[in-house]
């Protein structure tokens, strides 16, 4: 049988063809099926019915059963079709009747829970063996519209029971009902067969994840420079302030240790007095203390030690307050140092500005669709790899010297960044580029 070709009629020709093929003056009744019809499209061959793509659904409803197949030239005729819907993750969650992507049962398509899927790991209803090492090695139960409807009905019944007092309100939680809080708009089979996230939102999510990886690696390298006190103009002034405050903290700690040692000595002397001269502190049977010169002198010396201890405790408290103030200054300086952009983060920001890529104020700061596409262009992939070209900076090293029996400070060159990181980044962006071209390719109707 010769292969059929798609119709190429104008609107007027198509309408006249339909009128010719359906002589009845009355339009045929619409044999509507539920929108959850997931049947495999059945194909019949006919040389009398042609469908106009733009008005497909109305023509399907107004077309009668086609005649038996002919061996002559014929066109395809569909008696059933599968309707699917797409959108972003949160919008589809409302479509299915779920509370949203932040619930315990977060997935629109399956019953995977947050504790089953490690953070940063992908999950899928059916994982290909090739990718088991990168994904969770188990299969999850697929959601069905009927299952969602049943759970949402149970949830509504629980809410009513809580209002009447026959059930506590704290026990009515969406996660106890697979996060099904509303009846889904469809009924029938698996959700994954009818509902899917659009390629645009997939690319937005992946683009955001990759951009976070790039910035995270840059911040990580900058932190290595800060921790090793690598010489970088933006850091050097803060390094000096940090060093000055650290010296102040060290001096305060030494003073506190000295005062604590003095307090311990005073306590030891008081214990010795009590141990050796305890009789001078105990009253006799009539409740009178020994008032001899020796006894009075011992008690006065003991009281004087108590006063010395109180003075030392006040001095210690004063030093501790001073140390706390120094530590607060150090925390502010370290926070200031963290907020200063290092060489790698500066490179990333400069590149994003030159490419006019800007994070959106929504979707956790994701890039918009055209910017994601720009991110994975071949020329831009090479630009991002150059961001992580290694740099050499002077750092301080403290080495023990046997000649002077003390630590000596040296300045040596240290290399930050590596070619291996560049290769990994290029591979990541290349893979994303290939996936993007695959799932955003134009497909015929």
Descriptive account of the structure:
Helix content is 49%, strand content 8%. It is mainly α and 445 residues long. The chain has 4 domains: 11-78, no CATH class; 86-197, no CATH class; 199-231 and 351-445, no CATH class; 233-341. The strands form 3 sheets. It has a two-stranded antiparallel ribbon. The chain has a two-stranded parallel ribbon with strand order 3-4. The longest helix is centred in the C-terminal third of the chain and has 47 residues, at 293-339. It is flat and about 130 Å long. The relative contact order is 0.08.
List the helices and strands and how they pair.
Layout: H1 11-21, E1 43-46, H2 56-62, E2 75-78, E3 85-87, H3 89-96, H4 145-164, E4 195-197, H5 199-227, H6 233-276, H7 293-339, H8 343-354, H9 369-375, H10 378-387, E5 391-401, E6 406-416, H11 419-439
